[in-house]
């Protein structure tokens, strides 16, 4: 089976899940899968995907895994106790043929607390099933050579002594085997330049730092859970701060676009949060605007961290590091370009929350192709409420 541990997912799923347990235990949600890559035929592998997801739903956390989670400073004991009883409910996921030829449809519907862990392993399953059927002779050596060149760009340049990069590629990896080789190789050859991984299982197994804070679904759900829509972003950040009391302090900036984020990210949040994460739009202009925003709010940008994670490559990360050197702290998370760069076109697949408590929710990205909502009227209303330009 592809997924053999419930830790084989990204850390931010656990950090968000803990907030759900403590703040929103009754929330009901719906997620929907989408493949953005054209002309991908997954229909022949539907039964194989179903079998993998069935196996996923039989998994439970082991005592060693629970002990590891308990060792993380921001994970609370009652949450670990809950995870000791947890398994993914198979009745909440539906997998079948899609509307167009070759497409598949995957939806998840049920309690947020019990379904939040589906997304990452399901996407990893779809990826690996697809590639093991369509790429019977993977370019392992080509992948190793590409990885080596990427690492050398950092390790061979003395000017990059402070450069740190993390691996963020679980959901779009070519395979679990290759993913593990990437983590193992980067740890061995990059030394202090390797900041860690978003994958909790890999972090535990290879004794590296697990990384991650919040995802888009958290701020999306708060559109339905907060007091009113216009205040949902502020509400989400305040609830996060209430849960973590200064820990995990990187705010996600692109659920409503940069303009709306800066309107809500006032002096209080500038001082309270450790920094912000970029995940859509031009990263250089985003970074410049964040630095100006910190200065305008009497906050020294040099004390704050800008995290870049949108379709990054090592060369682009180096450019960003050079641009912002000495002006702020920077951190980089690279996903697909590390875990699925063996000479085959990666799949652009996502599984996003589309409803919470029966109400549509949406992400209005600075990259228009990343916007996802199944209700055009709600999306138009959201744009109006947050003073966003029409699509």
Automatic annotation (TrEMBL):
SUPFAM superfamilies: Nicotinate/Quinolinate PRTase C-terminal domain-like, Nicotinate/Quinolinate PRTase N-terminal domain-like. Pfam families: NAPRTase (PF04095), NAPRTase_N (PF17767). Transiently phosphorylated on a His residue during the reaction cycle. Phosphorylation strongly increases the affinity for substrates and increases the rate of nicotinate D-ribonucleotide production. Dephosphorylation regenerates the low-affinity form of the enzyme, leading to product release. Pathway: Cofactor biosynthesis; NAD(+) biosynthesis; nicotinate D-ribonucleotide from nicotinate: step 1/1. GO terms for biological process: NAD+ biosynthetic process via the salvage pathway. Keywords: Glycosyltransferase, Ligase, Phosphoprotein, Pyridine nucleotide biosynthesis, Transferase. The modification Phosphohistidine is found at residue 216. Residues 163-389 form the Nicotinate/nicotinamide phosphoribosyltransferase domain. It is an enzyme of class 6 (ligase). Signal peptide: none annotated. It catalyses: 5-phospho-alpha-D-ribose 1-diphosphate + nicotinate + ATP + H2O = nicotinate beta-D-ribonucleotide + ADP + phosphate + diphosphate. Its EC number is 6.3.4.21. Residues 7-127 form the Nicotinate phosphoribosyltransferase N-terminal domain. One of its GO terms (molecular function) is nicotinate phosphoribosyltransferase activity. Belongs to the NAPRTase family. This is Nicotinate phosphoribosyltransferase. It comes from Pusillimonas minor.
